[in-house]
Amino acid sequence: MRILVLNGPNLNRLGTREPGIYGALSEQDILERLKAEAPEVEWRHVQSQHEGVLIEALHEAADTGTHVIFNPAGYTHTSVSLRDAVALTVEAGSLVVEVHLSNPAARESFRHTSLISAVASGTIAGFGAGSYSAALHVIRSAQ
Fold it and tell me: Mind telling me which residues the site (Transition state stabilizer) is annotated on (predicted)?
């Protein structure tokens, strides 16, 4: 099984950026935990501040049957193009689990609407790094 961990803007700053909201673990810490939980998985990771890079990674996942754990970060609320790329990836047969470290519904009102949720396979939010582990569990259970 192949899984892409796809992280949007500013997630490369985890562990130092607002740890009261996003936790003390770095992006690398989260990735290492996932690899330890599922060493049999063929892991790939992409993090970018750039929307086009994220879209290209989703296209590749669609083309290769790779499942995706996707934290679109701030693009969650703004990117129709990422929404469309998630939709085509799911349509191609890959699971795309939208994850968030914090609970957007409990934060500022502009974070309450996700353009991604309606087309993702599912959404997990509010459990810190555990959101990624829960997404892994969902993907494994669906196989």
Answer: 17
